[in-house]
Design goal:
The protein has 140 residues and is of the alpha+beta class. It has one domain. 31% of the residues lie in helices and 34% in strands. A hairpin with a 4-residue loop joins strand 5 and strand 6. The chain starts with a helix and ends with a strand. The mean pLDDT is 80.
Amino acid sequence: MKKILLVLGILTTLIVLIMIYINENITSPKSRLKQQFNLELKDGQFSIANEREQWSPNGDGFYYVEINLINDFSIIKEIQSKFKSLPVKEDFPGNSVIGNVNNFQDGYYSIGTIESDPTTFKIALYDSKKKKIILYYEIL
């Protein structure tokens, strides 16, 4: 009986550690920005202002996050070299979760489709005045 409890305790601990790893390294805003746009934020140099996520059982949905930058000038230089200057010139599908992107006039953006599906897209906006990154992607 003690062996069974020990094995169950070890399995429970492993499952909890795996869930913590997934939450911190795969589904965090920092890791999503790295996965989607190849931008890496330094720990302690940003704060999450707003984060929303909604997914249907069929896989459709969206992810939205606002990231405030705190003295991270290296990421700003990286954004300037990889992104295009605002205002956004391309049209893109999707709903109004990110609002009117034309409100962003001073900064940079990157937009693209995911898995070459025209109804699926991703966009990252950097607002130079507010020192804020907005990451949004949608799968329809």
